[in-house]
Amino acid sequence: MLVPGARTGALRARALPAQPRGGIGGVFGDPPERLAVATTTTAAALPHAGAHAEPRGLAAWLTTVDHKRIGLLYGVTAFVFFLVGGVEALLIRLQLAFPDGRVVSAERFNELFTMHGTTMVFLALMPLSAAFFNYLVPLQIGARDVAFPRLNAFSYWVFLLGGLFINSGFLYGAAPHAGWFGYATLTEKPFSIGPHTDLWLVGLLLLGTSTLISGLNFLITILNLRAPGMSFLRMPMFTWTTVVTSLLIILAFPPLTVALILLLFDRFFGTSFYLPAGGGSPVLWQHLFWIFGHPEVYILILPAMGIVSEVIPTFARKPLFGYVAMVYATALIGFFGFGVWAHHMFAVGLGPIADSAFSLASMIIAVPTGIKIFNWLSTAWGGALRLRTSLCFAFGFIAMFTIGGLSGIMHASPPVDLQQTDSYFVVAHLHYVLFGGTVLGLFAGIYYWWPKMTGRMLDERLGQLHFWLMLLGMNLTFFPMHFLGLMGMPRRIYTYPAGLGWETWNLVATAGAATIGLSILVFLGNALRSAARGPAAPADPWDGRTLEWAIPSPPPAYNFATVPTVLRRDALWLTKHPDARGPGLADAAALVSGREPIHMPPPSAWPILTASAMLVLSVGALVHEVVVGLGAALTIAGVFAIALEHLPARAVPAGGHEAIHIGTTGLDHRKMAMWAFLGSECLFFGTLISTYLVYKGRSLSGPTTHEILNIPLTSFSTFDLLMSSLTMVLAVAAIQRGDTRATQRWLLATVLLGLVFLGGQVYEFNQFLGEGLGLTTNLFGSTFYVLVGFHGAHVSVGVLWLATLWHLTRRGRIGPGQAVLVDIAGLYWHFVDVVWIAIFTLIYLIQ
Amino acid sequence: MSAQSSEHATEHPQAGPRTYLVIAAFLILLTVMEVAVFYIPALARVLIPLLIFLALAKFGLVAMFYMHLRFDHVWFSYLFVAPLVIATGLAIALLWLLHVFGSTGLRPATGG
Amino acid sequence: MRRLRWWRLAPLGLLVAVALTGCGLASPATTLAPKSDFGRLSHGIFLEILWWDVGIFAVVAIVLLIAIARFRERDPASLPRQVRGNARLELAWTIAPVIVLTFIAFPTVSTVFRTQAAPTGDALRVRVVGHQWWWEFEYPDLGITTATDLHLPAGQPVMLELTSPDVIHSFWVPQLGGKRDTPPGQVNRILLTATAPGAYPGQCAEFCGLSHANMRHTAVVQPAGEFQAWAARQKTPAAEPAEGSPAAKGRDLFRASACVGCHTIRGVSGGGLGPDLTHVGSRRTIAGGMLPNTPAELARWLRDPPAVKPGSLMPNLHLSEAEVTALVAYLTSLK
User: Fold this and answer.
1) Mean pLDDT per segment of 10 residues, for chain C of length 335 residues?
2) Which contiguous run of DSSP H or E holds residue C147?
3) Which residues neighbour C235 within 8 Å (Cβ) at sequence distance 6 or greater?
4) Which residues 557-596 of chain A have a CB within 8 Å of chain C?
5) Do the chains contact at A715 and B35, CB–CB below 8 Å?
6) Helices A440-454 and A460-486 sit at what angle, rounded to 10 degrees?
7) For residue C192, which of C145, C125, C136, C109 has the smallest C-alpha distance?
8) Mutation for B interface: C136, C163, C181, most B CBs within 10 A
9) Closest by alpha carbon to A362, among A314, A419, A406, A412?
10) Nearest CB to A318 within list C82, C115, C179
């Protein structure tokens, strides 16, 4: 069981006759164990697998669904965007190095800082974390892939194309220019003319889609695909931070989506959601943006905290101090993250009660954060530290993040914040958190896992040089910004006059930025050197603690020859260094040498094609409605293609359930994902309904609720939708007991009732238009049509979905073995129904 | 993934068509009550809490029986109810911050 | 490696030293030398948190440095003691921050309520309007409208009522205290009493578009008597230039040109889009606080405003040199 001499990488896959070779290209090698490329979800398809032609070269990368390849794609792409964002930062620093700088114009400068923020948040740091999620989470939990491999690929391609889309503005002089926070009214038509802001908001909707899907994917992967025995409190800390980050993504992105959609309506269709002239409020944008924006800060920092929590125990050769407290601290930071957003808005004038409430809530976050910092210090204390580059970055993280956290306490105090917000002090603060924290943490992870990912070692001396240059550079850049802020220098100014005492520190900051640039060059040199002639990495170069170090570097496509059985936390470490309570793994050697049949998902071209269709849709928003229509049609076609790609030609009989969709918990991934998605939808509709209620009675002209709403008609619609829920649940019951004829009947009934509801809505909208209530007539019209319209869109999607299921059931392609497919559609349908229950009460009855 | 978990794979709710019909009857009854309450002037004072209560009852019935949260794995309830609670909290906070509960509406600009 | 450790804190130590001594931090826009009651209140809390922060960081840094120095791997064969946690310690560093935060929370909340109290009756009201990209100051009780220079009496409470017709700006005079945004459709307030006469620069702190960097202003705090005198002068109608003088030529030109569409000069024109110019000659700066108010700079501005100030809503009127000279003569005469 215990492999002898396990201290430094003895768990290498000696048993494998043909080990995958090092280098990025070798990741997808074809070891003999790769038994099967199952094209479908059933075991029946296994015999055909040999006939499947494996794509090679570029095509293999474009169609890959392997979480490790997607992780590498995320990593490389995000790093390129990181360099782009860095060059933007350097240009900003060059412009500000001296008073009255003339390096770039005011217009370019505004584009540069807007895109620097947007790029770093959405295109560099979040996707770099996603790269680690992708590569490592399945390995850490002992899985062979994520729950939804093709959706994972889809997320990546949407991210890549979205990133190119939003950056394309630089090519035609229309890059986004209103700040990464996009405050209305500056983003509204009268103040932002041209495609700048359209590009930004459509691009963010694209990126949000990608992020939301990957958040769902990782949440379900971790909940449902943990190896046997890996209970929640045996999960590695990085996996834990991924869980919380994914939850934050699922809950925080819908409010941003709503905020962007409202802005889109303002800009494209002439509504006044954020325009005071039409009764709207620019402050609503700020609330919605920061309801997303503050959890987003934790989305950016938690993965880095997870990395540091892996790196320090490994190089201190000692367990993470206070693991359980760390888990709770992570969860609490995530939870409190939803209650503090208005501390970004103290200067907006919320009144003393709200100021105080949000101030106290924000201070509370310092408590779990402090627990984390002291637990990391205690992990190092008493350890046997190996000061490798990765650990240096982790210690750098602790020191720098502490500075950022401590200055954050100042911003939690409104009187102090009023002096510091929107000044360079806050720029210093956020960069100590996001550079000193996130970036240093991510580099700790890069140095730590590079050997695992590439199969090659990085150079330690260059790594140390990189670390010291970067630490020096960031302190030179960002520490003086505290001073500049205290000396009254506001953010986001493209120039400043001489004589305010700001010259020296600006010059120092620019020199620091150049130092950071130099350190990045050192890293790039190190990376290229490693790729060209770095020594081959053993399976376990650091005497690691988690499961990824039990398998070769880089791991084979299927990860584990045998799915591990975990007995304790720090399973691998305790297997190598067992204590009185025994090893951590049931059979460590089998992880690389076992020979159980393996199902791996086949490559698919549909993710990239569907993502491209979404790009067409987005470009259409800037170009022409016809292109929008084309893109929407292609996107729907792509979604159908993905959904039907692996549907067996003949129905699965009862009992012949689809093993590949069932996690180790015994639950179906898809059903769990649907529930998580519905949770996310609660935030989406919750935000839309809040907007309606906030603007109720604020219409400046035109008809309002009681003059126009038709209660008898909507009562009938409500009745109709409730009945459709009944027919829906009868369809589910029918397929579960194997009665496909009844299933078809009830599905058809549900579809028809859905169509009747939609017909009623069309009639109602027509009536309203006839009575003079248009989308832009007043705020009531805008909020009403957008809320009820989005509900109607959900009904339409449901009708299409159920009609498809009805058709497939009739064709004999869905049977009792796939009852869960009807079940999931049913959950969606009932959710749409309960949203209507809320709308009926809050909009129609409470006037 | 592996076969050992297969016996848990399908979760049949313990409710049958009969239960669903009863729930449907309740849902219709509650909707009729909602509309009735809306038209009864005597109830105007308690209209809002009453309507919210009735809506919550309908919401709960659909979620627990039609979406079979009552019979299903408890994780599904967590995945749905936790976001629902956060969404409700955020909605109430937003309405409070944007002065919906006060009578003033958003603070208007004075003096043009 | 041993020597490198000291490198680690060298730049930081230097910077902290600079911060503590305050040397190199002198600026006319500093937040560290408050000249109002409002500024002093926030500065007090700032200092309190600063000292807590310095202390906490010192603890973290020292523990980290000692750990790095003492706990190196010496014998790869023997493992350090596998400590998994310590409930007492963990409880201690859960409770300690709560205590520190309580010390911060109390003055914070009390200051929040004190600084946002209802205005007292004797407060001087000033309507502060943020425009893209200049500040307008209106004294409704005195009947004065001016721009860019905010005159305030020392020792008297002032209620600034902030608003904007276009986008969100943020009014900030660092020496007089914290900033407040001007979300369109909402009126925000700052209540303060300036304590020391002086001219304190400030500028818009919320990104507001192309020339956000060029939206500056000066708060001129004057002893009460001086302020009264200034106010009295501002209330008078615009100076009438002597007939036949270059200034009179400028006035006629002003009247006949597009200027009147945007600018008010009481008795001459009534435009409302640009700054009121009735007493423009008495101001320290022009063009939204961007240029000193000298004839040469004024002439440069009039020749091509968008070239001086990106995005300026005042267009290039393609004035001839003679016209510029006449206008400069007229505008500088409006003391």
Assistant:
1) 51 62 79 94 94 94 94 89 92 94 94 86 92 95 94 95 95 95 93 95 95 96 96 92 91 92 90 92 92 95 94 93 94 92
2) strand C144-147
3) C142, C143, C144
4) 577, 579
5) yes
6) 160
7) C125
8) C163
9) A412
10) C82
